Amino acid sequence: MEATITLRVDGEERPVSLDTRTSLLDALRERLGVNAPKKGCDHGQCGACTVLVDGRRVTSCLLLAVTQDGASVVTAAGLGAEAEGEPLRRAFLDHDGFQCGYCTPGQVCSAAGMLREARAGHASHVTADLSADEIPLDDAEIRERMSGNLCRCGAYPNILAAIREVAR
After folding, report:
1. Backbone angles phi, psi at 16, to 5 degrees
2. What does pTM read for this prediction?
3. Which ranges of the chain have pLDDT less than 50?
4. What is the pLDDT of residue 44?
5. What CATH number matches the domain at 2-78, 3.20.20.30, 3.10.20.30, 3.40.50.970, 1.10.820.10?
């Protein structure tokens, strides 16, 4: 069955006709030509496809595109317009937070989302003070919150350093 939906991708309204079984990732990449989110595992386990949907980080390979009709989707390519986007991108460059670069778009979007979550007081598994209005991002907190994003090259120390810099 076909459906026509509209997504606001990186600030631009984008209508798209697609099969109702199409994932958000495939709609972005194959239908709209947005190549920032990467297809890694296609099972929501690697984080390469992470984007921000209405400000929250999601693995786009697990969402049906039709369920996101009217949503705002921000990819790593459009993150520069977001408040933490440019500092994050700069920190990833300054700290060499990537090797091959395949996971980088998902890492950057996930980092932006987790910074917002911590600022809003959303606890993680390692959060010590559950009553805090804003969660302080120490190394353990950053590692826990970024654990859904894999880097096959092992650039984790550099990614951690980049996020730590922006979190301050």
Report:
1. -150, 135
2. 0.92
3. none
4. 94
5. 3.10.20.30
